[in-house]
Amino acid sequence: MNPRGGFNTKLGFILAAAGSAVGLGNIWKFPIEVSEGGGAAFLLMYLFFCFILCFPVIVSEIAIGRKSNRNAIGSFQKLGFKKWSFIGKMGVLTGILILSFYSVVAGWVLGYVFEMIRGNFQIYESFYEYTNNVKYIMLYSFLFMFVTAFIVSKGIADGIEKASKILMPSLIFLMIILIIYALTLPNSLDGIKFYLIPDFSQINLNVAGSALGQAFFSLSLGMGMLITYGSYIDKDNNIVKSAALITLADVGIAFLAGLVIFPFIFSKGLAVEGGPGLIFTTLPQIFESLGETTGVLVGSTFFILLTFAALTSTVSLLEVPVSYVVDEYKISRKLSVWIIAFFIFILGIPSLLSHGEFLFFKNFITYLGSTKPVDFMSFIIHVSNDTLLPLGGFLITIFAAYIWKKENLLEEISIGNNNFKNSFVAKYISFSISFICPLILGSLFLITFLEKFFGISFI
Ligand code: TRP
DSSP character for 383? Predict the structure, then answer.
């Protein structure tokens, strides 16, 4: 047994990594992007990005982690490239930033579980006031962070693996119940049509860029999450197979989420709203219309499902800095977890205050070329999701292909996968990681960065 601890089973690793991938991004953002991006046309492009472009990055991250047996920063040093550990440092920082706002949104979701149980569907009229009820929201985001920290404090096998083995199957079970129910609603087929009928005219470079960004965020790539989880697996783990299953789970659950959301919306003929409005204001109206008992049942099931999805993601985000501190500073896991979680909770407070009366955070910053001030939470999202993740992904592919070298990458992947070396997949990964991935991820980084912060548009 590895002294750092590790996953007990291959399935445990897959569930934990898929749990990280499946999050608020899948259930809330993905369906909206599909509907705005031309239905099935977007879906096809998304599948292409996940399996063709992101797949080599997933495999590389896992291989770097397993080979080095270290956290996101230490892994670069362990492989002998101390200078390149800045990629890991950037990753740890990105994880901390993402967790700081993600836990605020997860707190809203958790609060909604209780609102639905109480039958308070009217909350859709006061979502704005709800997010402004600072004490209340802070309590929920604190609670969420507390549960996250509790799971991570138990370690890999007894904490993260165990929780994923309970939460992921429960999530799929709840999802299936909701799909069956949603399909029995009137006009549900119109929802499915709206969701899935391809409209290729909607596809342009902008839509392609957001599909790629979404795929990357959804698969939790670009910040060393999979380096960290990969460092806890054994040599007999088939990395290619695990990566394929993780991708499949992520794409599959995002797809299923649309089969819940669109029949719901169309059953009442409501407009499809983008952004937080969709789950926080549109859906409660629909739950209300189902009648008291059914509404409470369906509404709380939906938000419990969302809570589970968010929880396996926040756990993975917290594990990245924790693993670093435990490995490198020899501080106990428990102490590291509680200190880091508390610090990130505090860091999240400006995001928590971004939507209301605290004008300082609401109108936090104005970029060159932006027409109105950007709130603090959106600013953090632009920095982490839109800028640092693609940049991290770009650098990881450069590292894997040219610094560590692709021969070593392929060698590591072939352990636990006998026929790998001469396979088509090996040739593809080798080509893609050297040329396609760096080129496309590098461009994505440059284009979004220049557009977001400087208003320079290329399209
Ligand atoms: N993938 C998660 C989602 O879709 C979010 C997430 C969790 C994440 N861990 C991450 C994103 C690491 C990037 C990196 O909601």
Answer: I
401 lines ligand 1 (CB under 6 A): no
Ligand 1 atom closest to the CA of 24, numbered from 1? 15
Q: Report the phi/psi class of residue 272: left, alpha or beta, with left for phi > 0 and alpha for psi in -120 to 50.
A: beta
Angle at CA of residue 411, ends 408 and 415, nearest 5°: 140
pLDDT at 1: 52
What pLDDT, in 10s, does the model give residues 40-85? 889 999 999 999 999 999 999 999 999 999 999 999 999 999 999 9
From 152, 221, 317, give the residue whose CB has the most ligand 1 atoms within 8 Å, as the site to mutate: 317
Separation CA 90–CA 128 (nearest Å): 34
> Token digits for 60?
């590389």
Q: Is 217 close to ligand 1, i.e. is its CB under 6 Å away?
A: yes
What does the pLDDT read at residue 276?
81
3-state secondary structure 179-205: HHHHHCCCCHHHHHHHHHCCCHHHCCH
Q: ∠ CA(159), CA(54), CA(144), 5° rounding?
A: 30
Nearest CA to ligand 1 atom 12: 220
